[in-house]
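Researcher: Last one for today. Full complex below.
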Amino acid sequence: MQTFSGLIAAPGIGIGVIAVYRPAQAIPPHPAAAGSVDPDAEWRRFLAAQAEVDAELEQLCANPNSLVAEIFAAHRVMLHDKTLLDAVRANINEHGENAVAATFDAIADLSKLFTSFDDEYFAGRASDILDLGRRLLARLGAQVNRFELANLPEGTILVAEDLNPSELTRLSPDRVAGIALAKSTPTAHSAILARSLGIPLACALGHEILYLLPGGTAVLDGFRGQLHAGVDAAELRIFQRRREQFLASQATAIDHARAPAVTRDGVAVPVRANANSPKEVAQSIAVGADGVGLLRTEYLFRSRAAPPPFEEQVQTYAGFLAQVSAQLTVRALDAGGDKPVHYLTHQAEDNPFLGLRGIRLLIEEPEILLTQYRALQVAAAGGSSNVEARFMLPMVSTAEEIATVQRLLSELPSDLPPLRLGAMIEVPSAALIAQTIAPLVDFFSIGTNDLSQYALASDRTNSTVARMADPLHPAVLRLIQMTCDAGRAGNKPVSLCGEISGDPIAVPLLLGLGVTELSAPLPAVPLIKETIRTLDLDDCRRLARQALACPSGERVRDLLAQP
Amino acid sequence: MDDANPATITVTIANPNGLHLRVGKEMVYIANRFQARITAENLTRPSPVVDVKSILQIMQLQARTGHTIRISADGPDAHAALNALRELLAPAGSPA
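Model: Here's the assembly. Have a good evening.
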């Protein structure tokens, strides 16, 4: 058996036959000329496709990652570029081509010209031209991929360098048993989509996987982020058993999802859901979540010219409070860094992850903070439900920041009961001084995605170093432990809301470190609850002590994988 | 700036990444606000004479930081167009 190790991106175990996806030629073969062509009709066809692609790109420009948004904005300019349009029109009018052939030739000529450039940067722009061409040709109805993603045989382990969201959505989840990607990161759109489709996925497995022989039996272990090829019959039986256990526990989990998660020694652990949108808030009850433990509010502020007005926010939060069970934790706007909000973040920063973001931006723009807090306060007071509203501050790095926010909040009218206020612990400094911060707040919420990237100085959006930003690295575990110790000493609950909270294997360790509440990705909630019901906290603490003594994240994973 | 012919300027690219996609995009936005026909040529490395109203042509200049490009404009608002482009590429105060 040959094992490739990468990053965990979507849980589950897939067993099947390898198919290697190579996106064929960069652009499709030349389409056959379709008899006599009506130039006006073909030009109108092109313009219709252009308008559809424009709408598609406009949506992509709303991507929270400013770099991605910037690239698609440039693609939009290319889409309307006179050089491209003149070439397409000339191919139709002068060469009698149909819209597909005219577009294909114009794109092929331009990309060939760019590829011939000496300068690497400008030559590289050929890939942007081809990407745009693929979009146009897809809208024009041309065959885009030689390999039919939509028609894969049942039980396929799909191996690819990377899959973009449009490729992923063409897959049929009942036929694809697992996905193995050479590149990509657990926070990429492909991973998020795979989780929602229930397809196990491991990423950053390395380019060697692209040379695996198609047709061989393989296992994709989404719990450990591994691909096993050349699996023999005995090994296969072990994986089959693990897969059946997982499927059985998942079925039980969904049956029991609404029941509270209580450990064998009688400790109830609230399991809440992370939500990015109204749709996800609405789904939280269906998956059995004990409320929403992280409501990201960036979506409220994006794609508009000014912050949402107070009244609108009151209504939005009131609607959410009516839809969740037990508790709603609203995170104050976490803009800046990689999540720019154009009317707030004016200056380009060399190091946006270390820049004016989160609570720092809120202190600069107190109106945003005060409006959001007050709106949640009013919504909570107006609701008849017994759902508790909590307000959480992102990216806290010093105690002074919290004191400043409290001073600002004290200027609000005191007619309503204050909200429970929490600090996100996602900067190492905040974990190190958690004892100082504890008396200032009502709860902690550990954000392991950012905490691990800051602790290990590894950009989690950069696939070459993303695997270093390991939330299970002992350095991160110690920061989690310090936060939990400070929470326990100050009698403050400690929640954890990173992606790792959705990994059943990590849950005993997190509880052993002292985490008292979890907020997990929506689809993971039933399984996390079911996992907690099998645990004993004394065993968890023993496990945590062993993990803290491990020399590396890899050793921690080995420890957690032991039966 | 080339004073001998007021409808032509030469600028040295100050933007740290040269005339990459983002700056190119800005140039196209600006150029399209004017009626004048606007062309450019890279004097530092051999390039065709390109139409500044097209990003796919601007890219063909392959202009990096420190490269000198000549921009010419022909039309009723030629001077205004060149001023606007110079402001983008080599704003006052930056080393020319």
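The first strand of chain B starts at residue 8 and ends at 12. The domain at 8-89 of chain B is CATH 3.30.1340.10 (Histidine-containing Protein; Chain: A;).
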